[in-house]
Each structure stands twice: as structure tokens, then as C-alpha cells.
């Protein structure tokens, strides 16, 4: 996953791809519990926006792969909508 981040980071600050954000909340913390999403520090906010943009692109790509496999498995016989 970090290799994908390193590739994507060419559109932002190169240092952002070296490691995950140090002050991002963990899975069991509220977003406001750390300074990662703080409007008080524009540097953090820029990295947060960049990181969430990258992460959402990874999730979208993975969802497309899952839906593609499901579609080929069911041969178009199931409608999701």
C-alpha cells in the first residue's frame, strides 16, 4: 500500500510518501482527537486532504476490482440497482 502512496505522492509533497501521517487518528479515535484534520495548521490540513484523496482513490480502485469479479462471476444475471 505504501508503494502506491509513493507513486501518488509525485502530485504532492515528496516527503508525504515516506511514511503514514504521524498525527492521524487511529481506527478507534475520532477525527478531532488529533491535530491531523485541524484547520489551525494549514500544513497538516494539506497533508490530510492529500492523504484522504489518495486513500479514497485506493478504495475506489479496490471496489471496481471487486465489482468486476462479481460481475464476471454472475455473468450479468444480477442487477444491483
Automatic annotation (TrEMBL):
<keyword id="KW-0624">Polysaccharide degradation</keyword>
<comment type="similarity">
    <text>Belongs to the glycosyl hydrolase 14 family.</text>
</comment>
<keyword id="KW-0119">Carbohydrate metabolism</keyword>
<keyword id="KW-0378">Hydrolase</keyword>
<dbReference type="GO" id="GO:0000272">
    <property type="term" value="P:polysaccharide catabolic process"/>
</dbReference>
<dbReference type="Pfam" id="PF01373">
    <property type="entry name" value="Glyco_hydro_14"/>
</dbReference>
<protein>
    <recommendedName>
        <fullName>Beta-amylase</fullName>
        <ecNumber>3.2.1.2</ecNumber>
    </recommendedName>
</protein>
<dbReference type="InterPro" id="IPR001554">
    <property type="entry name" value="Glyco_hydro_14"/>
</dbReference>
<dbReference type="InterPro" id="IPR017853">
    <property type="entry name" value="GH"/>
</dbReference>
<keyword id="KW-0326">Glycosidase</keyword>
<dbReference type="GO" id="GO:0016161">
    <property type="term" value="F:beta-amylase activity"/>
</dbReference>
